[in-house]
Specification:
The protein is an alpha+beta fold and 716 residues long. The protein is 16% helix and 31% strand. It has a 10-stranded mixed sheet, sandwiched between helices. The protein is globular.
Length: 716
Amino acid sequence: MNRIRFVVFFFVVLVSNFAVVGQQPAAQATQVAIRVEPQSFDVLTGQYEDAANLGGIVFSFFREGETFFLRVTNQDKIEIQASAADKFFTKPPGPPAEAEFVREGGRVTGMIWRQGGQMYTTKKIANIPQADTRVPFKRTEAMIPMRDGVKLFTVIMTPENQAENLPIYMERTPYGVAGWNSPRLNSSKAELVQDGYVFVFQDIRGREDSEGVFEMLRPPRDKRDPKSIDESTDTYDTIEWLLKNVPKNNGRVGIAGVSYPGWLAAVALLDPHPALKASSPQAPVTDLWMGDDYMHHGAFRQTYAHEWAVPLENQKKGGGITFDNPNNYEWYLPIGKLQTLAPELATKSHSWKAFLEHPSWDSYWQARATNLYLKDTSVPTLIVGGWWDQEDLYGPLAMYKTLEKTDRDNQVSIVMGPWNHGGWGGRGRRLGAMDFGSDTGNYFRKEIQAPFFAKLLKDKGTFTPAEATVFQSGSNKWMTYDSWSPKNGQKKELYLQSGGQLGFEKPEQAKSDPGYDTYRSDPTDPVPYRKLPVLATYTQGSSWGAWLVDDQRFLADRKDVLSWKTEVLAEEVTITGDVMANIFAATSGSDSDWVVKLIDVYPGDAQPERMANYQLMVASEIFRGRYHKSFEKAEALKPNTPTKFAVDLRGQNYTFKKGHRIMVQVQSTWFPLYDRNPQTFVPNIFKAAVADYKAATQRIYRSGSNASHISVSVAR
């Protein structure tokens, strides 16, 4: 199954950046059409918008002769028929839906749209339909030869009415490009289409319709071997071919992509083709072990590695994982499940073979860590990420920090928004229960991404991105900074205190206070990472895409989750930059995981009502205890001995509002996304025995030299 974020926009299912997946409409109830005089329909024509929910999506109603039509922004027209004077339904083969027009004082003021069990109330904003500004494209296919003879399947989209030489915008992906066509291009890349480009989409080697052998995050080639290849040389060879074979190109190329394609946009910067003038790695996979898809600080993301990596490496096209239990929490729950899965999956997936042979951050993983080998760029580079990216938050931040060290001519900039994985490809107004007050995705695409490419590839405009453009959630506003993290914040520590209190004052240990809080971590009853039932990652109805903003109150009854929170805030507290948890902890076992969460607790009278008492994870991360000294070498913990664990929570730009509380939670399991630590040290957890899994008593210390705290930078 491709790694995909589903966004439903009425008539089609748009899948952000990667693929278009068909949706079979429910059976449409038989409706009887009645005749409506064309002149009667004319008062209904015009534009209708549901700004509160859809943001920029406009319904246009119009007629051609005696036939009535509906068109949604950047989509094909659909014929509609009347079931009553002010009620219309879509004519098959259009998706089943109904429109009911609303009148006030005889004047048409709005329209109610019903589809798929949902209802949207729209307001009439114009009496004439929205102009169809879509650009028709000619689609051609090519098998582009690489220097070693392997040919890569490529789709080239050229404007049919091209009047000038245009730059080339390209994306390379392992997820398949055969589905690209003119309607999809106009719908998913409307801002870039309006500026004018030749669009190129390519299957990387070994995937989908391309030749060759696929290798996950293929390491850079050995330049001493002139015949060696990597994704950088494939990009170079593709650009060279395009410049010679695509008519009326202007000799400039830009590359972008999200997730794995984001990594491909990044490695294009290794020995870049001279024509490559702009790159935008977005949510780029950067280090699979340290903080992206496979591991976080050594803790194994078993469900994701299983449900994403295995199909990608085992099947050339498509595919997925099936389960005999829809609740993945229960499916992964039996102790030893991981050890049963691993040997079999290692025969299907090179990554699973690597998990067994390279459980620590050794040379195998380091060779695939982009931030260790991509240290400089001569190409203007716009890095993009989301603060609630459930897959690759680590990647953009790590890549930016590495490239910034050598960025003497200001070629590198970063944008971080309130998004999940690829969320900037949609409206970006909401994520789960959260409402960010504006269309942050639309803003990014129109005000940053499109001008970035237009200037560098077309000499259009004067836009230069700020060093760091970062959305500040809570206060819900865009901010720009001269560096990330900003250097003018005030460093402060949030200390865990007795009685479940949290504060900026370092606590003093009372004589009657043991100086720590305790919980019991039991591998047979792990803490779920999202509310049960946990559906498979990519199944319909899964909350995978928004789980990082889930209300944490679903864990309120758990005895193995400790919480500390401040008094009600008398004034706003804004944290900007890196967030580091320094946890002093001990376990009765000889190994343990530590999960740390920084949470915004909303007041009981918060509006809208759904946010009353809401507990929002602002930042969170997991750390596998065996790596507290070195990620390259695992080491047993000394039982019942306080030890410092530095847990990098990656960062944030967030305002805790007046009347809210700040909370910190600590736990030792986050299941089934992360495999369970046996809590008994074994050299390789992938080979642990069932008997190694034991319950442990955990202590979190909070006083004296063992005062656990969260280090933040508070805006002055």
